[in-house]
Amino acid sequence: MQPPATPDEGTVHLGHSRIDVDRRARTGDPEVVFGAGKSPQQVVEILTTLHAAHPDTAVLATRLSPESLDAVEQHLPGAVADRLARTAVLGPLPPARGLVQVVAAGTSDGPVAAEATVTAQVHGARVERIDDVGVAGIHRLLAVRDRFTEADCLVVVAGMEGALPSVVAGLVGVPLVGVPTSVGYGTGAGGLAALLSMLNSCAPGVVVVNVDNGYGAGVHAARVARASARAAAAPAADGGQAVLS
Amino acid sequence: MQPPATPDEGTVHLGHSRIDVDRRARTGDPEVVFGAGKSPQQVVEILTTLHAAHPDTAVLATRLSPESLDAVEQHLPGAVADRLARTAVLGPLPPARGLVQVVAAGTSDGPVAAEATVTAQVHGARVERIDDVGVAGIHRLLAVRDRFTEADCLVVVAGMEGALPSVVAGLVGVPLVGVPTSVGYGTGAGGLAALLSMLNSCAPGVVVVNVDNGYGAGVHAARVARASARAAAAPAADGGQAVLS
Amino acid sequence: MQPPATPDEGTVHLGHSRIDVDRRARTGDPEVVFGAGKSPQQVVEILTTLHAAHPDTAVLATRLSPESLDAVEQHLPGAVADRLARTAVLGPLPPARGLVQVVAAGTSDGPVAAEATVTAQVHGARVERIDDVGVAGIHRLLAVRDRFTEADCLVVVAGMEGALPSVVAGLVGVPLVGVPTSVGYGTGAGGLAALLSMLNSCAPGVVVVNVDNGYGAGVHAARVARASARAAAAPAADGGQAVLS
Amino acid sequence: MQPPATPDEGTVHLGHSRIDVDRRARTGDPEVVFGAGKSPQQVVEILTTLHAAHPDTAVLATRLSPESLDAVEQHLPGAVADRLARTAVLGPLPPARGLVQVVAAGTSDGPVAAEATVTAQVHGARVERIDDVGVAGIHRLLAVRDRFTEADCLVVVAGMEGALPSVVAGLVGVPLVGVPTSVGYGTGAGGLAALLSMLNSCAPGVVVVNVDNGYGAGVHAARVARASARAAAAPAADGGQAVLS
Amino acid sequence: MQPPATPDEGTVHLGHSRIDVDRRARTGDPEVVFGAGKSPQQVVEILTTLHAAHPDTAVLATRLSPESLDAVEQHLPGAVADRLARTAVLGPLPPARGLVQVVAAGTSDGPVAAEATVTAQVHGARVERIDDVGVAGIHRLLAVRDRFTEADCLVVVAGMEGALPSVVAGLVGVPLVGVPTSVGYGTGAGGLAALLSMLNSCAPGVVVVNVDNGYGAGVHAARVARASARAAAAPAADGGQAVLS
Amino acid sequence: MQPPATPDEGTVHLGHSRIDVDRRARTGDPEVVFGAGKSPQQVVEILTTLHAAHPDTAVLATRLSPESLDAVEQHLPGAVADRLARTAVLGPLPPARGLVQVVAAGTSDGPVAAEATVTAQVHGARVERIDDVGVAGIHRLLAVRDRFTEADCLVVVAGMEGALPSVVAGLVGVPLVGVPTSVGYGTGAGGLAALLSMLNSCAPGVVVVNVDNGYGAGVHAARVARASARAAAAPAADGGQAVLS
Amino acid sequence: MQPPATPDEGTVHLGHSRIDVDRRARTGDPEVVFGAGKSPQQVVEILTTLHAAHPDTAVLATRLSPESLDAVEQHLPGAVADRLARTAVLGPLPPARGLVQVVAAGTSDGPVAAEATVTAQVHGARVERIDDVGVAGIHRLLAVRDRFTEADCLVVVAGMEGALPSVVAGLVGVPLVGVPTSVGYGTGAGGLAALLSMLNSCAPGVVVVNVDNGYGAGVHAARVARASARAAAAPAADGGQAVLS
Amino acid sequence: MQPPATPDEGTVHLGHSRIDVDRRARTGDPEVVFGAGKSPQQVVEILTTLHAAHPDTAVLATRLSPESLDAVEQHLPGAVADRLARTAVLGPLPPARGLVQVVAAGTSDGPVAAEATVTAQVHGARVERIDDVGVAGIHRLLAVRDRFTEADCLVVVAGMEGALPSVVAGLVGVPLVGVPTSVGYGTGAGGLAALLSMLNSCAPGVVVVNVDNGYGAGVHAARVARASARAAAAPAADGGQAVLS
């Protein structure tokens, strides 16, 4: 593998792409490589470059092909690859602030839930997983409802009819992100049914990301958790009696 | 109003339409007038004609405009008009066989639930209504779950994300028809989200009708109830040990 | 193959999924494995686990890949695999109560009709098949119309323009489930044309399931048949003269 | 009303539009005014202009508003206005050559069937109407099937699930044009279900026009009839034994 | 290969399908095998069966895979296979009556045009091909416009924006069937743009078939040609002066 | 106006609907009336009932018609009606905790931004408005970018191409909810373009609500702010060094 | 009318909106008011404000309601209102540089063509109109083809099947913008067919704007013309022999 | 390889296609081969034929498969193949007149930007590339904004939410073509989100081509540049004071 390029003014020029190594300063988020469409060698090279620029914190790669995961494991022994989530993480995780719960309806939603989990961890949140609580067996969901109130943000992953976020959002007032998955067939193929279901939730306050976008949900959820932690470190931010603007 | 035409060979020729007065013999269902796009006078005339052909059982008119409902009340004092369901019924109801429960998620789903209710009654079923049990307040639904097992068929009406049939179908093994309603806005306008949600239910055995089609759901549910009653009057129909064909 | 896990509180934890072994008590339906996306080993393992929990009645696996069907035949000699339906059944069938007729328009609709057939049998109904009665040769359909009145529930399977349920529902008053299939090309590819056709049937009482969802139709149809049988065992359920609510 | 403009080189310039008075020579079809979006005065003016250019044969106006129909009746006493078809015809009809049958599924399809009827007559065909033969009452359709073989071209009009053309095309080998109508609601609103149904017909040789386009179907059907008549006037056109090109 | 089954009452039962050998008597069309989804052996078997039932006229197979075409050539030496059209024809063609012109916009539309051509020939029409006359080079189209008037029916095949039928239909009054093809990419992928374009043609009388459905267009066009020939053999069918119904 | 009904077990039964007065205890959110489809009298009655059950905190009504706003102002002098937001608020606002910024692209997005603003205030957040910062004049957006870092949650409202959330989310790491609006025409009519744009944002962590759903965005944003405040009142919640699960 | 506000730092704050009066310096384009959704008084006020800031050049208002057009004519006697284009122009036009031809398929496309015309003139181009050259009468189009070569940019407006840009772009190499219009019905309603047709044109180099967006096409076309003029005033810009990058 | 066919009357007949060698005289554009669906041998053959007819200027082939690129490199040593753009160019480039800037949002948009680049060069423009300026890192875009004013036409390529053209068009008044790319997943798959975003841009004057159609954008942009150069060679084309038509 060729040696990584030298960072310059917040941008690193590799042969195949320009890497924005300034994003962290701008947004507080770690650097991320979107692995789809990139060769195994490119993935390894970008991870190496980003890690060299930020040796003190984790960088994340998502949507990795099996070949890219193989290459990461072979060339970057310090990286942690996750075959289910299709991710790799290189460098130490940040301190975990706040709690994100990732709730999944069924076994088939596992890969997307795993991507959300790894992403939220790399973005600085503690994560709990709650699995197999689909709405067709509501008793399993109700058995864990008390746990939901402990979370700073919920990520609720479901395919097929995508009803789970509506039911969970009716149980607690915790901020909640719905993630539709492309699990299904016929009119549900591609996740359209689940996406529309979540966008039209009868429960208030459900926000949504694109189909299978566990990464986006993980980023948002971790940001919410980080905001909680930031507030905890500062004096109480009560703004007094509100007035309607 | 001009006098109704004379029935002839199973068909009545009015000026504006040919009425099939033979349907009942063919399918066991009552005669029905689809009122959308028909003038108040036409509605009254067709109801009168069908009632004359079948004085011993109810005929049903659906999708009536306020003007048509006014005309029915004025010209057909024996008819029962329902402003919410937008229906009118003329003639005695058949004996009620079996039990249909019509379950509605929210207040806005009321008109469709009412259409399903009247339809099932005219088609020979007893009907119970269970209202305001949307999934965003799951405790209200669970409070009535034991009642569901008493039904011969469930008609579950919901708009927005349309999750209610999935949750109910996970609770009981009763035959269940989902009815999506056009309640909603944005991407949910027109009922598409609810329809797709029900078609892609993760709970097994949910069948679906078109958006706002309370009539179709009522017909199917009543037929299921009638089948139950027919079986009850006959010797037990156990077919012995099944074999895979 | 590793030994199956031990059931505990209605749920079995295998390495890859949590199995709900309580569903039968809740809904009266048998246990089912949705085989899509599962490895042959996982399918065999789950079937084994479910069968151990319910040795006295059949468990069903659907959407099996050819490899999973091979594995079932090799490792579970007591199972019955159906290559056309892509199903496997392990354990004795329940007594057959009521009659479901599965009606298919054309040869290409065969796999979906077969899935509906096996499903209804495993869910406790007797099943008859009526094939190749597409609407483009209406004489073949009319030749069998008298048989339709014997059914407790009809499952009507059709691709392309999906007109068959409309025609059949105009002939008899038996409860009828339409199953659109993804047979077709151009604008009909994916089954959208057939699905919309059935949702918009001019014949009253047609209910619909998702494209290619023979399983869902089979469950509903068998439930209708079971309801008929339950009624037959109890005193007549006539509710007296109905009243409009 | 201002006096009509003078024709010049196949085009007449009115204040509001340029009228192509040469189309008849080019295609053999009569002149037609598409009335949608035109004022009553414009409709009258264009009809007057076209009639002056072609006094020996009919000109047709379609999609007329009630106000335009009023204006035509008031200002053009020689014109024949049809309130159902929303058409007006000015000038003598051409000789009727060949037979077009316009077949309609239900009462609501009447306006589109009427537009097809008038159009085919103005384009030189004899037209028969066959109404209320929807597929939900297949016996009414079968009662008239022998008549279909007499037609040179069939125009089959249906809304909702749009199944009628498939059934008719399975009965006879006559050229057949399907016309989907916007009759319906929910997913069928706008005629999409009927259009897709006809495009995906399992019966061979069904051709289709746009939703509610009775005019287009009438033009095509009359052209087919005219072709038949042209052939009848000439010596037999048998091309001998065909060869595969 | 196993010996073909024996015909019985208009239907032949092979192991895998029931063949309707009565269609020709009913519609005048030849027998056709839709080859998609059928194995090479099944195609050969059905062709053999149909040819045995109708040795005096051609049977047609469409949508054949390369493997099925190989099998036809190997096992049925009397058959004519067309690799571009993906068709096979077995048995003598009927006499050619009337003229169908198949007009194609570009080279990529060739397979669909070829399917329409073979189909029309097997259904009894003489066929001429006019190729590479897309609207982006309108001079090539105008160079052949005089030939269009000789046709009894035009089949106009185009992908991408599908404008060719509109332009041709503006030039002549011959019956015209548009065939959209799935040639294109982006929003045009799948033929939707071409289909909508043809359905919304500003030229009157354009009728349309499903995307890539050269077969359907060929059947319709040949029927129009056969109608012309039938008329030619009979006394002139002038219906006298038409009257508006 | 009839006197309000008596609360009972968390539910109040009015003639027209059952009101859930228990939601606040369950989720911490205030009571809300969705005004669409309700009569002015019903809106007033439900607001009165909810206010009687919760006199110490605000209740909110959204999507009010002008007539309902009139009725609220006439009958409930203590209520604050907002004509732009189409909302009414009755009862004292809760203390404002945390800061929500509502950012709007253009003047036409004002009503949706106003609904989000009022909702977030009623749900307990302080709100700042930043208007007219559409991406076509990027200098206006950059002029206020430093303010964004002060917010606990951003609500970014945009119609047409909906690009604003992507640009803002690239500037700061604050949790951000995009709200597409139905401002636009042609292919953008109904807000589809803006919705898809936000779902597919190239900036990480953008979450989305349904078109025009300012209410949903306001609920989520206020919940995020409340979470921040809850954390501030408790000891620091640092979870120590995270580990990849 | 209240006196207009004072400009300040490139932005004028009226009560209802902030006006960007700096756009001209940034892009060279004039100021424009999008009138949809604005009251007549607001339109007049904004036009007055913009004209005060830029008295030496025209400002444009588009999508004006009849009431706004009335108000403009009453309150701004110096303005030129166009009822067909639904525009108003206040202030002197810029010098006309370059030639834009606006080509329209039919009479119904007139309003969109008029909007494009006025827009291009206000943005500094000379404009010629060529009307009624739809593809169904190709001879009219060919009669004017030589004129197309004189234009610096063509704006081609068409509804229904939208084929005109493809045909024109095949005739000349002039830059060409297609504008689909919402003229049509059925599947063509809303302009989707025309939009897709233009996006998928088989003629190279056709660019497209949103449905009915005559304004956008006018801006682009005038910019192309201004670029031509700018080049004419400078020394020749030949870049020498190109090299493939 | 067989020898190329002889040109004749502006058309060359190869075995597999008719080549229009007259297009250059008609439109001033070079000859182009659309390589999708053509075999490597066909591509080489057509390039050879076109080059023989126009040896003094470049011919272009697009959408070449890797195999076709291999064949071009092997058989046509004078050709320049571009693996990223999937193009091949044979013959000398024309003189470069005017400047096209091709601006790309991200690395994944590279192939489409490369196709636009090569196309514009072959069509006679000088091209500059500006890469990796996506809106999520707006500082990179602002760093290059001054360069945009030097272009005669901008081609702006973006996938996902496709916001880049809106932002760029708000910065400068240069003619701008947006090219949506199929980069993305979920609801963005296929480029629909980016396409709708660009069609609905809030910035005036953005014109659009089909998804991934770098070729079409390159043709239009080069034509704009050629128009600029043509104007530069002629006397100033100021048309004097414009008048509203």
Automatic annotation (TrEMBL), chains A, B, C, D, E, F, G, H:
Residues 98-230 form the PurE domain. It holds the Pfam family AIRC. Residues 1-25 are annotated as: Disordered. It comes from Aquipuribacter hungaricus. InterPro entries: P2CMN_synthase_LarB (IPR039476), PurE_dom (IPR000031). This is Nickel pincer cofactor biosynthesis protein LarB. The gene is larB.
